Amino acid sequence: YRFYGKSEDGDEFNDAIRKLFFSFNVLMDRPLEEAVKIKGAALKYLPSIINDVKLVFDPVQLSNLFGNFIRSIPDNQLVRQKLNCMTKIVESDLFKQPECRDALLPLLIDQLSGQLDDNSNKPDHEASSQLLSSVLEVLDRKDVGPTADHIQQIMERLLRRINRTVIGMSRQSPHIGIFVACMTAILRQMDDYHYNHYINTFKTRQDIIDFLMETFIMFKDLIGKNVYASDWMVMNMMQSRVFLRAVNQFTSVLNRFFLDQTNFELQLWNNYFHLAVAFLTHESLQLETFSQAKRSKIIKKYGDMRKEIGFKIRDMWYNLGPHKIKFIPAMVGPILEVTLVPEPELRKATIPIFFDMMQCEYNFSGNRNFHKVRGANVLHLLEHCRKHKYLSASGEKFAWLVSSLLENLLDYRTIMHDESKENRMSCTVNVLNFYKEKKREDIYIRYLYKLRDLHTDCENFTEAAYTLLLHAELLQWSEKPCVPHLLQRDSYYVYSQQELKEKLYQEIISFFDRGKMWEKAIQLSKELADMYENKVFDYEGLSNVLKKRATFYENIMKAMRPQPEYFAVGYYGQGFPSFLRNKIFIYRGKEYERREDFNLKLLTQFPSAEKMTSTAPPGEEIRSSPKQYVQCFIVKPVMNLPPNYKDKPVPEQILNYYRANEVQQFTHSRPFRKGEKDPENEFATMWIERTTYTTAYSFPGILKWFEVKQISTEEISPLENAIETMELTNEKISNIVQQHVWDRSLPVHPLSMLLNGIVDPAVMGGYTNYEKAFFTEKYLQEHPEDQDKIELLKQLIALQMPLLAEGIRIHGEKLTEQLKPLHDRLTACFKELKKKVEKQYGVITLPPSLTERKPSRSGSVVLPYIMSSTLRRLSVTSVASSVVSTSSTSSDSTSSRPGSDGSVLEPLLERRISTASRAEELPVKEDGDNRICKLKRKEWSISKSQVIVEKEPEMELTSKMVTQQQEKNSSNKIPAGDLCFHSFQPCLSLGTSLNNGRGSNTKSLISAGSGRNGLCSVLPALGVCRVFLKKSKCGSRILPLGVDRNIWGCKY
């Protein structure tokens, strides 16, 4: 400027500037390969002179010069450099002046339109988005003059192109965010006039339909797949606010152009309703999920946008008039989602839509039903239905059905995004059970696979298998084609139900294998094998299945499989969700999960809950409290052994499965004191409250927990408690003895601890506590009905001696130098204890089957578990067999009879057999605590431990030897009133036991004599014979101790 001098009009300087730009234009128009670097430099640095030059040069002319400069560049050359150059022009002070924008904006729009055109080969999205955002940023400022016309130009030329760019762009593109922001900025800066004008620019009705379709689909897609991070609250709220305003503007277009009978567009209206519902239910608008402070700020700045769009949905629905029937039942689901939003005003406004749907369908359908409508608030529906002339009865029934569905769906919706997968599983099961009951197999199967995915995520493979099994049960082993809804979500490409069921079974077996549920895997593999062998003749598949099954059998016997603990959990208080509130559940713990770990997991899931320290049921005050209370304690499963395993020597590895699986009843025992405490012996007043919990389904199942459906409580008297304790103790001793007999490598320390706790009276008090509490004349006088139970307890005490003796013998064989003092102490204490017990309660000898090693067929060792029920049955059978043998041998010889009126062994046999048959017909207690009922205890009087008694085939030899022994003892009659204790081998091998070399001290098994003076009876206990002789008060017969007095027909 100084070089050209200061003229009044500055013509020389202005001409020089024009010549300079003219030279640049000539340069830029030359072929690309010529002076390409100079061209790039001109585009890069020329905009930097704008702010200075416009001070001495007319800004509008300068804008025109730059416009001509850009136009001189061929279309497909230096595209990015050209766009960057225009961005710098926009960012300069020149573009802030309205007159300059009038000159530049058409050029900018032309360039952007070319880049965003559908036919553009390689659009530069990055540079285009930068230029567009810079333009919109300047237009949004308040200090740049009027911008309405400029917004209109951009709207007319670029809005639809930007929309299509967003629709076609991948959501993973790095440019998607800035293009959505640009589109939002354009819509935000548009006035109502702009919206009306823009619709008027379309030449045909189809163009308007296309534009609205594109916009509704794009909005719904952007709402469903957020472009911005969820924590970008301001950006998401701004976008929602702009979308809401745009949608409301377009609703007037729908009402104006597409509502009448001739021009109604069903798909367009359908897209609008789905967009509105998606907007209303979007997670960023659910204000209840935010803190109070955040909620207040959002409402103050943006308002509750859900109510605004919800009211608009209601108005648009009622505007449909006769077209409503076209949206039933398609719109029932979306409207249901609206009513599930926890906003009272919104729910009140939209729920009447359901009644309107019912009424509409009722009026339009020929059969006058409305079964397609699913869901509404029961109270509002009932209110509307009861007022209607024809819908009062059927509508009320439907409303209650919907109430159940809504309850499940509301719970499911509440926890859908919950971190606790356990809660999500519970609600999923509630929903799928509802749809199963209503025979909606398509939705039922959909939720089955949601549940399976939750289980696999948590590595609950057993539960995942049971879940898939529900799907398999819907299929048949047939070539019938699969209907589409029977195919699972991640569908196999199959054509028949048999093929699908086969693949499901293979997946289920794999899950059972991973969950160590080999018994269930074997069960399913048998079905598969039968199908392969007898239906499809796939021997290769049969071979694979049989190989897997062999592996499962081997795993059962050899693999380690820890038993899970079971926990009872009560959720008390109104603070819990409805599916937990004031309910008790039984939980199946994971492997090695302790109660402390389980409690910690519970309290982590419910951090505001208080842990209850008592196991007693809570009162009404806690149940109705607004707080949360959690009660947790361990329960014991009640084993439900299959019938084919009863009365048989079943290996312990097999029984272990049934101790913790296929169980539905659980017990919890709580001690309490009844009456005054005896300072000398607390056992006399210590009662047990035993609670039995019955769950809705057996474990394991499709969940790791099930609700308790039935609770029963009974009180166990101190004497019954003592009997149970002795039975369990004897069972424990016999099994640990067997384990050491079968496996000599087992460590001796558990055996040492068990023996020391029983033998040493300083540790547990010995049997003195029972003697003081129950074996006194005072107790018998106060409780004469307990006589049989006292005799049973004495038998159990006597039974413990041979078990302890065998245990101490094994302990001595495994003795180490460190354990020698303990063993000496055990031996001394046991010697005194045995002497006392045998003197007071009799002598019992164990059968050889308990202590002899028995190999299985394959040569491997099989360890049977000692079960009480089998012992009782075998003992009764042993008596019957023995007596039959004896009677048959001695029936021809009258001299062998004990009295002139006939042998009393025959009525004993008759009574025993009838007693056994009656006892077997007795129903099992409903509470399922696996305790033998009182009648069994009374008539059998046998220990709870099981012994496997082996029958010997030499029955004739046995009978002969018994007869010889009878004749030998006929001269040695036992004096009446004497009490004798004798030990024998098992009754079924009686002949052998009578000549076992036990010496002259062994008297007769059956002694001859007068019916009035003496009788010897055979009592079974562990396959052992005990002989009791005592004169009865009736004077006619000698009554054996421990035998039901009613059998003998006399009284004490």
From TrEMBL:
GO terms for cellular component: cytoplasm; plasma membrane. Keywords: Guanine-nucleotide releasing factor. Residues 883-907 are annotated as: Disordered. InterPro entries: ARM-type_fold, DHR2_DOCK5, DOCK, DOCK_C_lobe_A, DOCK_C_lobe_C, DOCKER_dom, DOCKER_Lobe_A, DOCKER_Lobe_B. The keyword DNA damage does not apply. Residues 435-846 form the DOCKER domain. GO terms for molecular function: GTPase activator activity; guanyl-nucleotide exchange factor activity; small GTPase binding. It comes from Pavo cristatus. Residues 883-896 have a biased composition (Low complexity). The lineage of its organism: Eukaryota, Metazoa, Chordata, Craniata, Vertebrata. Transmembrane segments: none annotated. Belongs to the DOCK family. GO terms for biological process: cell migration; myoblast fusion; small GTPase-mediated signal transduction. PANTHER family: DEDICATOR OF CYTOKINESIS, DEDICATOR OF CYTOKINESIS PROTEIN 5. This is DOCKER domain-containing protein.
